[in-house]
Amino acid sequence: MTSAGSGLTVLQTCALSLLVFTGASQFALVGAIAGGGNPLTAAAGAFFLGVRNAFYGLRLSQLLALPRAVRPFAAQWVIDETTAVALAQPTRRSVRIGFTVTGLTLYVLWNLTTLLGAVGAEAIGDTDAWGLDAAGPAVFLALLAPMLKTATERAVAGAAVLLGLGLLPVLPAGVPVLVAALAAPAALYIEGRRAPKPAGRMKADNDAPREDR
Amino acid sequence: MNIWIAIGATAVGCYAVKLIGLLVPVGVLERPLVKRLAALLPVALLAALTAQQTFADGRVLVVDAKVAGLAAAAVALLLRAPFLLVVGAAVVVTAGVRALTG
What is the Cα gyration radius of chain A? Predict the structure, then answer.
C-alpha cells in the first residue's frame, strides 16, 4: 500500500500484493528498495520474513486436514490473519470456513486497497507528509502485541529490537533482521536449561492449552 | 528490471515456504521444540522490523515524527482499540507532528 511512494510502479505494487500476498514480506521488500538497498538483498530479506508462514502451515495442515490436491491452492492464503482466525475455531468445519472466508476476504480487499493506494499515492505525491510511512510499523506492532504474553516472548522481542537496531548501521539491508531472528532459538535454549526448575515447568503447563488450539 | 526480478524471486520464495508448511508430515510438528520455535520466530521478526521501520532511515538511526505515531499506536493497543484504529492513530499522529514541526 505504501510502496508507490518508494520507487515502485503501480503495476509492480499490484503484482506484489497478487503474487506475494504476505504483508510483512511486501513491506520489507518495498522498505529495503526504498532505503536504497540492492533489490536482490531486499528479496532475500522479504523471503526470510515469509518463512514464518511455513510454521503457520505446519499448524494449519493439522487443523485443516486438506486433501493433498487442494493444498497448493490453499497455500497462498497461509498468512498471519488466516492462521489467527483458523486457530480460534472450535471444530474442523469452522476452521475450514474461517480459513477460507478470511483468506478470500483479505485477498480481495488487500489487492483492492493496494490498487487504490498505489493509484492514490501517485496522485498524492509525498506519502510521508500524510504520515503513511508510520502505517507499516504500526501494522507490525498490532500483529506483535497479542503475541507478547509471557516473559520469554517479551525477552525475545526486546533482544530482537536491540539486535535489529544495533546491527542496522553495520550489516547489509535485510541481514540484521535475520540475525535478530536468532533471539528465538537463543531464548528456547536458555529456557531449556532452566526447564528442570519447578517454576519453568509450571509455565510450560500453562502454555500447553494455548499451544494446542 | 532488477525490481521485477526481486518481485519474482520474492513471490516464488514466499509461495514455496507457504506450501512447504502445509506439506510437512504432521509428526514433525508434534515435537514441542518445533512448536515453541514456530511461536517465537514471528515475535523476533516482527519486533526487529517494527523497531527498524520506526527508527531507521535507510541504514541510519533517526528519531522523527514516526516515533510519536508508534507511541500513539502502542497506547491504542493498550486500550484494546481495533486494528484499523491502531494503524489510523499512528498515521494521524505522525502526520500531525510533521505538520506542527515541519
Answer: 19
Cα A110-B65-A162 angle, rounded to 5 deg: 80
| Domain annotation covers residue B92 | yes
- The helix (run of H) or strand (run of E) holding residue B57 is strand B56-57
Domain residues for the domain of B79 are: 63-102
Buried b (16+ CB within 10 A) or exposed e, A21-31: bbbbbbbbbbb
Give pLDDT, residue A7: 73
Element (H, E) at B41: helix B32-55
Stated pTM of the model: 0.64
**How do residues B40-98 score in pLDDT, each as one tens digit?**
877 887 788 789 889 988 778 999 999 999 999 999 999 999 888 998 999 999 999 99
In a domain, B102, yes or no: yes
pLDDT of residue B72: 97
The alpha helices in chain B, defined as continuous H runs, are 2-23, 26-29, 32-55, 65-78, 83-101
Provide the shortest C-alpha distance from residue B43 to chain A (in Å).
Answer: 6
Residue-range domain boundaries for chain A: 1-133, 148-213
Beta strands per DSSP E along chain A: none
B33 assigned to some structural domain: no
Residue in the structure block whose three cell numbers are 535489529? A164
All residues of chain A having their beta carbon less than 8 Å from the beta carbon of residue B94 are 131, 133-134
Using DSSP's 3-state secondary structure scheme, residue A75 falls into: helix
Q: Which of B9, B26, B38 sits opposite A43 (nearest CB)?
A: B9
